[in-house]
Queue: 2 jobs
Job 1
Amino acid sequence: MNYETPLASEDAALVDDASIQPGRRRWLPIAAGAAIVLVVLALWLSMREKPAAGGDAPVQTIPAVTVISPGSSAVARTVNATGSLAARVEMPVGVVGEGGEVRQVLVQPGDWVRAGQTLAVIERSVQTEQARSLAAQIEVARADAKLAQAQLDRAKALVARGFISQADIDQRTATRDAAQARVNVAVAQLAEQRARNGRLDIRAPAAGLVLTRGVEPGQIVGAGSGVLFRMAKGGEMEMLAQVSEDDLATLRPGNSAMVKPVGGSEQFAGRVWQVSPVIDPQTRQGIARIAVSYNAAIRPGGFASAAIVSGSGQSAVLPESAVQSDDKGNYVYIVDGKNQVERRDIAVGQVSDAGVSVKSGLTGNERIVETAGAFLTPGQKVKPEFRKAQ
């Protein structure tokens, strides 16, 4: 009977195994697999963590960031503006004399002319005959004056003999003087007519460039005909730059500028020669007049942009990647003495190929995060890697 007991136990175990349902057998390998995954995950996490100085607490990996210390450099303060191009001194040319029919137009827009050069010729046949008539009247007056002088000379010779009284001498002297005066009047009338004839032609008031022409041969012109030609005195041009009220206060006559006409790639050096003393109450802008030398690419009436150097100053210059912005404005991240990220609000100045100048908020001696600032948060611990600003 002692040998029968173990056999009974083994039979019971077999009976129990057989009684296990098939569904429960399928869950056993799934549970085992889940346990293995949890063990592997725990091992991976333990490999990422390092023991703290105390021995138990884990710490996260500290990201490395590139920082720069730009210092302070001389930066030109530039005012950007747009405006129209025009002749610096525009001269409208019209009819000075009595006018008439235009016989010839001698210039075209774009021609250079000298002072007094004839631009258009007016028909003058009537005026020419009037001048000839006046010239003939001068000869008549001179003949009368010559005769009066001869009569006076003969009378003076007869006075000593008693044939002519002193009263006759006085009368003949007056006749001679009147004849000479008529000569002078005729000469003055002829000179006046010749001056009028000279004013018939339309002439350039000064040397310069012809901009427009508004007259054709055969046209009848007069004092009310308006402007027939427009000229730029000396060919000098200018840009009427529209500048905001704040920027206008920083400009002075003599400031240098670079003017770029729309549609072209060339830039032309200029200089501010006048700053508007008034502000437009509607646009809150004023005009800075920039004088530029003549160039065929500068066409009056065109549009242009200008960069005006209003001065210079010392400021930090940062690469554009270092400057961040949000609803509160522009800012950068700096790394403090504890190697923690700190936000610093700044005011941005001129943006150029060299970078972004900082008007306020930085001294330039801070450690400034150059890149990856968008992935950092204030107070975060970082590992700074210093790079000297170029």
Job 2
Amino acid sequence: MSNPLDSLRDQITTIDSELLELLARRRGLTNNVAETKIQHHIPVRDQKREEQLLIRLIKQGKAVGLDAHYVTQLFHVILEDSVLNQQALLAERANPGSTLPINRVAFLGDKGSYSYLATQKYFSRRPGEIVEMGCQSFNEIVQKVENGEADYAVLPIENTSSGSINEVYDQLQHTHLSIIGELTHPIRHALLVAKPLQISEIKTLYAHPQVFAQCSHFLAELGNVEVKTCDSTSAAMISVSESGRDDVAAIGSEAGGALYGLSAIKSNLANQKENHSRFIVVARNAVTVPLQVPAKTTLVMSTVQTPGALVDALLVLKDNSINMSKLESRPITGNPWEEMFYIDVEGNIQDGPMQNALDELKKITRSLKVLGCYPSEEISPTRVAAVNALNE
């Protein structure tokens, strides 16, 4: 007897295939848009145009029975994809000769780690095949790029739940590599097991120390469970997969766990439900960021040991209308009680205000170094007031 749902599912499958073809056609047209923007020096984003587009789509959606939230969320994803693809194309054009047929990328852990997933996400928009180079420490990652074994490194630098990853900042203090890109990746921790079991049956739990910090509330509820730290989330998953035991678990992503035959028995373990990690991409050579593309610049500096020296440096940014998005301090190795300051700002070093600020900072700081100017991949969604969308 045939399943009464088969006919409906066949129709849905056909529509899904048509949607994919339409999305591919739309993406192709946005690449043509990028080419036009290159020729005429037009900025990648036009948020007024995006707002008008969303208002029109919300009204059209309402007419065919689709609610505004559904339409808005769907097209936020589509618009973000369009912006990121255009930025990648402009960056490729601005750096002739930088495109490689093979991208050797070093990252923390093995297949399935969050760094592995971030690497796949970042390079999916770049031409060339990826050669994955899993490493067991941040120092090993940096060394592979410095000595030419790898072309790029992907490094986690901060998390919305556990904060800055200080060891990475310490690596940046001593390397000659340049930051050439960034991305933010959602971190969704799940409890992963090799065979179905109850949480109360778990005797040993494996995870990276940062993961334990991000899931401390969940750990507090577990009770008498042995906690074992690993160099990466992939190492934790491998430990469970190879243990042969029915009473062990790991914390990691469901996608990563699936690569090792693990399944999730509990999800959303992080203290903060909106949990994201920011990653940077580093290489031996700096990149040129087209002025049409929103850019970030990361600086490292040390100030003179006088009252108000840091304030004076930050006022230089304010006076040049440069927005600072992050300030991080780290000790200077070998100089007790002295610190280096890492600063992320929104700006392109080719811009007049940024050049003025750098010139002024060089005069009032003990040392100043640009760690990288790179395209910003934090694509803020265009907001549309519901009243506007329904009344215009």
